[in-house]
Amino acid sequence: MGRIKTKMIKRLTFDLIKQSRERFTKQFEDNKKVVRELLGNEASKKIRNSVAGYVTRLMKVVEE
To answer: Where are the domains of the chain?
Structure first.
């Protein structure tokens, strides 16, 4: 049950991927920086990390 994401996390993630898909990679640290740039300080650290982790997971699935 560790991989269940809320609708808010999924919605934010898909919106960011639509915005700038080419900026995301398979590396969590790189994605974390991009998410911080795009969301700014509006979102908490926990939400930014959840979104970055979900983006990373989706990018790994897409490239396989």
So the answer is: 7-63
Q: Which ranges of 1-64 does DSSP label H, i.e. alpha helix? A: 7-19, 28-39, 45-63
The helix or strand, by DSSP H or E, that contains position 5, with its residue range, turns out to be: none
CA distance 25 to 33: 11
Tokens coding 18 = 């639509």
The CATH number of 7-63 is 1.10.60.20
pTM score: 0.88
CA of 44: how far to CAs of 54, 59, 60, in Å?
A: 16, 23, 25
| pLDDT surpasses 90 at 27 | yes
